[in-house]
Amino acid sequence: MVEYSCLIVEDSPMMRQLLVFALARVKNLRVTEADDGVDGLRKLASARYDIIVTDINMPIMDGLKLVKRVRSDPMHKDTPIVIITTEGSQEDRQRALQLGANAYITKPIQAPQVIATVKELLKIE
Amino acid sequence: MSSQRRKSDDPPPDLRAERDQFLQNFMKGGRLTEDFIAEYERVRVQLATLESENAQLRTKVEEDSAMRELLEKIEALETEKRDLLSRTKQAEAVSNEFSVRFEEVETEFSNLANLFVASNQLHASLSPRGVMRRVKEVLAQLVGAERYAIYLSEPERHVLVPVASEGVRGEELSPVPASDGAIGRAFAQGKAAVDDEIRSCEGSVGRPAAIVPLTVDDQVVGVIAVFATLSQKTKFDTIDFELFKLLGQHAAAALVSASLFAQAGRKMPGLEAFLDLSV
């Protein structure tokens, strides 16, 4: 049985909890949480992940910087990245996609949309 | 002599008659035989014709029978096809029903998760600032509120004072009467008010899209006024009303608890405070 791992990078505890709740519905998906971009990079340095879900607006290191750093890391350069943005931040979304993010989810997040996006990128039926 | 011989050759009349009779009979027999042979020939030809016709008829009957069998088989196959189509339609209907139900359950689960997370987060902090941050997160991330303010009651002045806000300039907010206007009425009546006549994203400070009374132990202590939602959210859903209810019942209680805890120097009450709780 294939097991997947997902790293959630989100500074808001509530959003993190919501994402964890949503992704708990995906079978064989192990979820790890990071508080911000720096914490995310620390966790990415110590383990391999199959997918990264990250917020854009975060203190210390935002999602755009994280996407850039991840894409320049040989170990995670091909890891799918899903960014979470607000409807108004179209520029950030475009920038993230240009930097190598694979998909985006708009706030307020809906669990079915999160699940569908992650499943699609991981090619899970 | 010759006349005698002629006489002797000449058969007696009775014999002649008998001979003539015999000859007649013979001739008759011959004709009958010829007739019989002719009749036999005719009957034989007729028989052959009939046999031929019979064979043709049999072939035709066999062909008709084969055709009938084929038609019956086609009919049976048509019936089977109709049956299969009917069963396929039934299966599709059941499948669609399952899909719809699955989506409903997924949405229900998502809504319950949102309520659980909101409730969990509201009580996850014991600092007034932390509670307020979480209230604002629930409003922004779960309800999709873009512009909103939280008012608390000041009974002495009989006004509601804005204590926190988002997306609104400071000068736009001021204390409002506790019984007048949309905000004051919602506070006085203790009932949530949603303006159905405007799209929730088009509300304003003067005309909030939704107003939610905040209660502590059945006493209304303030309101949350959602002036406008994010542009992509044009109306409130069932889950939003559930979130309003949850915020109305828990936000103020969490704020009051956190404020009391802060006032007490973040000290936990002694054990004696819990001794008389048994009912």
Describe this structure in words.
- The complex is a heterodimer of chains A (125) and B (279).
- By secondary structure, chain A is an alpha/beta fold.
- Chain A is built from five helices and five strands; from the N terminus they run βαβαβαβαβα.
- Chain A has a five-stranded parallel beta sheet, sandwiched between helices.
- In chain A, β1, α1 and β2 (29-34) form a beta-alpha-beta unit.
- In chain A, 38% of the residues are buried.
- Chain B folds into two domains: 15-122; 126-263, Beta-Lactamase (2-Layer Sandwich), CATH 3.30.450.40.
- Chain B has helices spanning 2-9, 13-122, 128-143, 181-189, 238-263; strands at 145-154, 159-166, 176-177, 193-194, 210-216, 219-229.
- The mean pLDDT of chain B is 90.
- Chains A and B meet through α1 of A and α2 and α3 of B.
What is the multimeric organization of the chains shown? heterodimer
Give the structural class of chain B.
Answer: alpha+beta
Our count of domains of chain B comes out at: 2
* Secondary structure tally: strands of chain A: 5
Task: Point out poorly predicted stretches of chain A.
Answer: none
Supply the number of helical segments of chain B. Answer: 5
How many whole angstroms does the radius of gyration of chain A measure? Answer: 13 Å
Q: Can you count the beta strands of chain B?
A: 6
The CATH topology label of the largest domain in chain B is Beta-Lactamase
**Globular, elongated, flat, extended or rod-shaped: what is the shape of chain A?**
globular
- Relative strand content of chain A: 15-25%
